[in-house]
DNA sequence: AGCGTAACGAAACTGCAGAACCGTTTACCC
DNA sequence: GGGTAAACGGTTCTGCAGTTTCGTTACGCT
């Protein structure tokens, strides 16, 4: 009835269609970029009817949004290295690898491009980063507990500071940052946090 | 001839048309965002023929690109405050104000969105940031000369580190960062630079 | 001032993304 | 294993972004 297609009978063919379409969309995104992402192409490559793609995803932004949700779902498990510099370095390299990966990097650029055009996409993007940050915040908080960082440090700000320069480079130059840049970003965030740059006035952001 | 329209007779009406179109495009961008930027709307609001807009700018991305070039052209003059923390703070607040401004913020988001779809736009975006960075690099270099920062500091990296978290916030949340965030970014970049995070690849161990 | 043509503008045209229709397949429940 | 309707898919249609055409305006040069 009013339930969206794909939610009442999610098994069997429906699931196969979803997998094939997302896979094809990812391929096209990695090969030709966001600009030439045509739903008819996706349908053809996925071996699926054009109608189906339009019915279930509606538009390019919808498809990209679903793709992002899928990416966020199988998040890479991260192991703590024991020291905060090591953890931040691991996070920076994760972001760097992600940006350098053809599929994930292209997807990231596509999502950022589509976000201003579509509310759902914007929400998905926000959620994606929130989850990311929340995942790595504990590392920073442990650093505070261990006395590596001053009390009152805004852990989320530290995590965001690691990824920010890497994402900026990807988005502005169109080229993925080098591993060296990732290590530099991690070092910088750590040094700034140690110096208390994120422990100043209480942030109003969040809650 | 093969010269593009608007280049042979740039005066009088041609200039008026250009001004009106860019103004209208900026208005629509600020009001309705990048998604609903229709060239026919722009033409109507500018009191100009639809044909003219298509002939001179060709597409939405072309128009956005020209708009960006215009913005980069009248760059805000920056005065040096005498101290590096002060300069970085001034730069951070400039970026923050820009992001918070309805027209400029919307334009920035639109350009980033359009960049993956169009080579010229991507180049314009890259150029825009390059100019920005070059403008503020001297402040950092003076800081190095004064001995505030370690020798071998990558001045451009420091400048980029200031703007990165602010732009990331604008692009991922869709909301412009607060002035507080700008000051935090400036503090962090300064602290990291002082600690030598942007100087060479070797980790900071006194030495 | 007069001329050549660059640039503009209104209207008619075209191509294609996306929607509608409807018959076919198949997942889920008993 | 049989019934029901959810979901698929081929075809056709439509709305509109973008193009073409051609007549009009006015910039810049002498």
UniProtKB/TrEMBL annotation, chains A, B:
<dbReference type="InterPro" id="IPR050109">
    <property type="entry name" value="HTH-type_TetR-like_transc_reg"/>
</dbReference>
<dbReference type="Pfam" id="PF16859">
    <property type="entry name" value="TetR_C_11"/>
</dbReference>
<keyword id="KW-0804">Transcription</keyword>
<dbReference type="InterPro" id="IPR009057">
    <property type="entry name" value="Homeodomain-like_sf"/>
</dbReference>
<dbReference type="Pfam" id="PF00440">
    <property type="entry name" value="TetR_N"/>
</dbReference>
<keyword id="KW-0238">DNA-binding</keyword>
<feature type="domain" description="HTH tetR-type">
    <location>
        <begin position="15"/>
        <end position="75"/>
    </location>
</feature>
<keyword id="KW-0805">Transcription regulation</keyword>
<feature type="DNA-binding region" description="H-T-H motif">
    <location>
        <begin position="38"/>
        <end position="57"/>
    </location>
</feature>
<dbReference type="InterPro" id="IPR001647">
    <property type="entry name" value="HTH_TetR"/>
</dbReference>
<protein>
    <submittedName>
        <fullName>TetR/AcrR family transcriptional regulator</fullName>
    </submittedName>
</protein>
<dbReference type="InterPro" id="IPR011075">
    <property type="entry name" value="TetR_C"/>
</dbReference>
<dbReference type="InterPro" id="IPR036271">
    <property type="entry name" value="Tet_transcr_reg_TetR-rel_C_sf"/>
</dbReference>
């Amino acid at each position: 009835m009013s339930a969206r297609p794909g939610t009442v009978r999610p098994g069997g063919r429906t699931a196969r269609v979803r997998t094939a379409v997302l896979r094809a969309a990812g391929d096209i995104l990695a090969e030709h970029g966001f600009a030439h992402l045509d739903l008819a192409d996706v349908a053809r490559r996925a071996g699926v009817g054009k109608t189906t793609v339009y019915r279930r995803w509606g538009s390019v932004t919808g498809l990209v949004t679903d793709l992002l949700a899928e990416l966020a779902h199988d998040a890479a498990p991260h192991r703590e290295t024991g020291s905060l510099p090591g953890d931040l370095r691991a996070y920076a390299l994760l972001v760097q690898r992600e940006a350098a990966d053809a599929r994930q990097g292209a997807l990231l650029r596509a999502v950022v491009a589509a976000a201003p055009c579509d509310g759902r996409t914007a929400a998905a993007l926000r959620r994606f980063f929130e989850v990311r940050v929340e995942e790595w915040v504990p590392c920073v908080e442990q650093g505070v507990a261990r006395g590596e960082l001053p009390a009152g440090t805004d852990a989320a700000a530290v995590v965001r500071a690691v990824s920010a320069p890497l994402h900026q480079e990807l988005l502005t130059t169109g080229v993925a940052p080098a591993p060296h840049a990732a290590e530099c970003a991690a070092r910088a965030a750590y040094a700034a946090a140690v110096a208390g740059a994120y422990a100043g006035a209480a942030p109003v952001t969040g809650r």
